[in-house]
Every structure is written in structure tokens, then in C-alpha cells.
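Quick illustration, no need to memorize.
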Amino acid sequence: MPTIRTETYKIEIDQELSKLNTYLHKQKPTKLFVIVDENTKQHCLPIFHEAIDYGYELLETVSGETNKSLDTCLNLWNQLVYNKADRDSMIINLGGGVIGDMGGFVAATFMRGIPFIQMPTTLLSQVDASVGGKLGVDFRGYKNLIGMFQNPALVWIHTPFLKTLDERELLSGFGEVVKHGLIQSKPLWERIKLKGTDLTTEQWSRVVTDSVKIKTKIVAEDPKEKGLRKILNFGHTIGHAVESYFLNSDKPLLHGEAIAKGMIVESYLAFKTKRISIIEMEEINSLLESIYNLPTLADKDIDELLTLMAMDKKNKGGQKLFALLNGIGGCDYDVALDNAIIREGLSF
């Protein structure tokens, strides 16, 4: 099974968990902490516990994007203090993107930084959130407004965890796989079109590996998102606003669902700016609409979304900036668009 190396850490995919146990004994943290939510405690912790004989303390939080907050971080910091964590302690984030982003942020800020391992348990976190060193929490209703860049000591991807997911969670992660194919790998996109999510265990491992390689390559060229890394935001300018808007509604969207909506709208924007053909746009929209049950947007929704987009971190000088496809397998970044065409895209 593959090992993907970056400048500062390794990404292990489907290695025997006994090798993680060996790694922990070699590192010898003074105290080991494992962050879980109620889902990973029930479904993933037993698999972890059976393979790991290094003693650890459990830090528990509640699942869901609404709990990705400074209040939850405060609770986790308090637990670290209560359990006498020191600078030679280590944290393992056993969970999806919320735990990975927030647990990494907690580790990177505690005593000015203690080492942490990302152990992603969802498809979304395996192909996206665990790779690239982005950490943070939501604030005042805005996605990831407070955070930092800090690489983990190790990323350990165990694709058998995917068997613990329901179909909706799996499809949420698949949105980021689709994105990776569209922005930089036409062959991956063609395989996705052909097979969808009807994959064997071995095929899932390959899809995860290919997706992680794409993201790792992009991040290696631009670790602090000054240029090329911005193409990873395809679907996210619209998608993050949609996710934030529906977060407190009676029908909140998962991250990948919101990004799927974003990719549909932003594919239309790429077509309108003559970056992709109408055939390519319809091909993308057809696949996404066949996989996801997405909300339609009324005029009042669009007004709110434009307000949310005004706080997007990618904006510069009051301009709303997008990553837009330039053909299948290519992508431009820092594309400034005005509200009129964005509104047209959202109406579409």
C-alpha cells in the first residue's frame, strides 16, 4: 500500500495498523490523546483500540459542523490541562473533517504547538481535509474564519473506515473526489463518470490514493495558498456560502453536498466566461444532479448568499474571486466576477 511523502510528513494509506503502533512507541509521547465524537467512538475507536497498545486518554466532542467552534476548542483545551498534557504530548484526531480541522487547531495552539496525527475516518477527510495543513474553526456563521496552516506529524488513512459511513456521508466526500478530477485529472474524471461510487474496497483505495496525490502535488507547489493552491477552491466560493446559509435551517447540507451545488453553479460561470463548452458544463451538471438531491434557490436565498460571499477569505479589494474550470482537467484562479453574473449563476 502506498506511502506519499511530503517535505515534512508522510501520508500512509492502508498500511497495517500495527505499523502505527510501532510509530507511537518510537515517538514515545509523554501522553497520547485521541479526539473522537460519538460516531467515531462507536464505530472507529474499537478498530483503533484493538491495534494500539500505547496508553491514551480519550477526549470526546460532539459531531457536526455546528460544533466546530471556539467553545468546543475551549472544552478540549480544558481537558488537556486537566489531564496534565505537556509539550511532549501528542494528539490523534480520529474523525472526519470537523475533528481534523478543529483537533489540529487545538494541538497547534496548545503550549504553542504539540504534534498531532490526522487519522481521517470519512471519505471527505481522507481525500481533502486531512491533507494540506489547513486548520481552524467556524466563527460567527462563517466557515473556517479562524485558523492557521500547520502540518501534522503524520496522516494515517485507513479506507476500511469508509465501511462505517452511511451513503449520504460517503457521497459528501465523493464531491471532493469529483472536484480533484475536474481541476487536474481528466483520467480520474472519466473513471468517476463511468463507475460513480459503485466501487470495490480495492477501487476505493485507488480513488483515495489518486485524489490524495492530486491534492498533495498542488499543496507542495503552493503550501500557503498564494497561487496554484487556489484551484482547490473550485466549487467552494459558492459552496461555502451555501453550506453556511443552510447550516441552521431545518435541512442543513453536508460539506460535499454544498460543494456539489457550488460546482454546478461555478461550471455555469466557467461556461459563461468561455472557459468550458456547453457540452462539458452539461456533462458535469448531469453527473452531480444524478448523485445529489440539492435545494433550489429562491431570490431571498440568493440575496443572503451574496452577503455571505462578501466575507469569503479569497476576496481581495472588495472583489469576489473564483476558481473556474478551464476545460476538464484544468482550472484558473483569482477570477473576479461581479454580482450580476454570480446572481445569474445562482438562478441557473
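The chain has a mean pLDDT of 94.
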